[in-house]
Amino acid sequence: MEKLVHLIPYKVDNQLFEAQQIPEGVDLIQAPSLWNKGFKGKDTVIAVIDTGCDTSHPDLEGRILAVRNFTDDDNGDPDKITDYNGHGTHVAGTIAAINAESGVIGVSPEAKLLILKALAGEEGSGSYEWVTSAIEYATSQKVDIISMSLGGPIDVPELHEAIKNAVKNQILVVCAAGNEGDGKHSTEEFSYPAGYNEVISVGAVSLQRKSSYFTNSNNEVDVVAPGEKIISTIPGGRYAVFSGTSMSAPHVAGALSLVKNLSESEFERKLTEPELYAQLVKRTIPLGYAKSLEGNGLVYLTAPELLADYLKQINIEESIGV
């Protein structure tokens, strides 16, 4: 089986044995502000399609709902999701880690994770068939969100159909845009599945809100999120700092979990996939880059309040004749 799907390339900046912090990326997108209102991702299920996960990591205790292996690692045992690469564990931690006191906390610390291993080996490669099967399984399990920090160069009809079916079933599909960028917004770089219109394609920015030099630019980029020097969990109870759009996508998957909690509380009903996407876009701020680089802008969960405060200030100034 030819392995054409790979991890979105990422850079390992540092490995650590302890962390003790709310990661800067989690803070940057304003996740703690929603936690303070009582929205932490409760009752949402996020499928992480990646290299597996270290389910024994203390920061992921109680977060993992179920697991399944679609690769030939561990002789194809469907119950073994050993993370030989570390990438899947890092992504899982950014979404839902729970240990801010002596480790890290994810964007959505009360969300549940369905860990689906579709990439194998230390290099983190796989087949389109494995990824497609994982998406179909996630859809059958009625998850709320699918997070994928992987990609390949080919538009495969079966993969596209699986994604369209997931979205039809009201599942939000989040994908890393890719790291083949050349720093020029006028040139397009596509990776699949991020290149499909039905998914939420996530580009990267630094913790200083600068567009990352490596992030793909194209007309399918929806939003951007922190993707440089992101600290999270890795196998063996440790932590590491990674960079790449691989790190941006889980920020958005976690953010959508919080947005779902908040929006459905406000509207007092379940929202459809397009409605939740609209609520996410409502919570972005433009950074001044071309749409091909930033889409709708940086995911910033308190953007509506920011806008309301700005308009209130304008009204005050107008009323006193400033």
Write the topology of this structure:
Elements: E1 5-7, E2 11-16, H1 24-28, H2 31-35, E3 45-50, E4 64-69, H3 87-96, E5 112-117, E6 125-126, H4 128-140, E7 145-148, E8 150-151, H5 157-168, E9 172-176, E10 200-205, E11 221-226, E12 230-234, E13 238-243, H6 245-267, H7 273-282, E14 284-285, H8 291-294, E15 298-299, H9 303-319
Parallel strand pairs: 3-5, 3-7, 4-5, 7-9, 9-10, 10-11
Antiparallel strand pairs: 1-6, 1-8, 2-13, 12-13, 14-15
Describe the structure.
The chain is 31% helix and 21% strand. By secondary structure, it is an alpha/beta fold. It has one domain (5-319): Peptidase S8/S53 domain (Rossmann fold, 3-Layer(aba) Sandwich), CATH 3.40.50. The strands form four sheets. The protein has a seven-stranded parallel beta sheet with strand order 4-5-3-7-9-10-11, with helices on both faces. A hairpin with a 3-residue loop joins strand 12 (230-234) and strand 13. It is globular. The chain starts with a strand and ends with a helix. The model has no long low-confidence stretch (mean pLDDT 91).
